[in-house]
Amino acid sequence: MEGTDATVEERHRAVLGRRHTLWLTGSGLSLIAVCYGMARFAYGLFVPDFRAEFALGAGTAGVIASGSYVSYCVAIIAATALTPRFGGRAVAVAAGVIATVGVVTVAVAPTAVVLAAGVLVAGSSTGVASPPLAHAVAHTVREQLRDRTQAVINAGTGVGVAVAGPIALLTHEQWRAAWVVFAIICALATLWAALAVPPGQTGRSVRPAAGRSRPTLAVGSGSLITAAALLGIASSAVWTFGRDVLVTSGGMSGSSSSVAWILLGTFGVLGAAAGDLGRRFGIGNSWTATVLVMGAATALLGVLPGNLGTALLAAAAFGASYIAASGFLLIWGTEIYPDAPATGVGLAFLVLALGQAAGAPLVGALSERGSPLVAFLAAAAVAVLGAVVRPRGHRTS
């Protein structure tokens, strides 16, 4: 019976050839790059500029970042539900359109309120982007290539961050010009998604085997939820205040801190190896190692924010480890929910964002009432807790 079910499922898949798989991978990576690397995480790159332009305190900056994560959570719930109904292409294109609108709003924001609204809309695009891409890969890419393809697409975050950094450097203090450029790139990535992402299954989803009902939470979901939440809290310090702490606490110049951000994104591309690492060493071992590295990098930025060499090393290590860890969460989710990959990815990234939504204002409050050092060390401690969580269920362990 198991063999029959597998055969039926494979008939429902329109498996892509190598060339079309590469086309989908490139498009997915680009969409993730603009939604995560620009529409969402570029906020952290420009926090020093936003604080100067709109007279924002660290706490307020953290609350705005938190709003972006909350909007992400709402969006990923909607995208997870809508993807099986409307297919990967429609929802992926919607993600690109939302990112473009949000980025344009930030670029023209006359007040802090409008800025916050733009950040909220832009941040929601990331929640819309991940489920349809995971859905498209799961239903069109050959099984032996799926984990690698998912991880490469997920590494688009690093590409987006790496591209955003040079744009920030070239535009100098003209941050609005940088966001206009981001908007143009978002529009181009949206067009590519419209051309490359397959429509996918619509109006139905693959049924579970006869006689089995799908539980609300699959076996292994508890550890996935815990790991994602702790990763979100721990990573919020660097994503929201990483560049700010280099400038305000470390006395680093805008150009030097931007270079650190570029390295963070560039080395984040190494997270594309998550799929291969997971297959070789197991998701559990790989997860523990990468999250511990991320925690060490966070602590290092808090302890020595004024040392350029240390800051560059820490930023590179954080980028590589965070993207890899989020890639492991993605694969972990698809394996726990093999019949509904969008649901698995949606759950993992929803909880990840909830952790970041809670972490950003907490880090901001700790920085104001204590010091950035205390805040970053606290985030590093949460990373250590997250590293001990082990995947359970399916073939993740």
TrEMBL record:
Residue stretches spanning the membrane: 21-43, 55-78, 90-109, 115-139, 151-171, 177-197, 217-239, 259-275, 287-305, 311-332, 344-366, 372-389
Domain Major facilitator superfamily (MFS) profile: 1-397
Key words of the record: Membrane, Transmembrane, Transmembrane helix
Organism annotation: Nocardioides luteus
Membrane topology value: Multi-pass membrane protein
SUPFAM superfamilies (UniProt xref): MFS general substrate transporter (SSF103473)
Localisation per UniProt entry: Cell membrane
Short name of one Pfam family: MFS_1
InterPro entries linked: MFS, MFS_4, MFS_dom, MFS_trans_sf
Name under which the protein is recorded: MFS transporter
Keyword Nucleotidyltransferase carried by entry: no
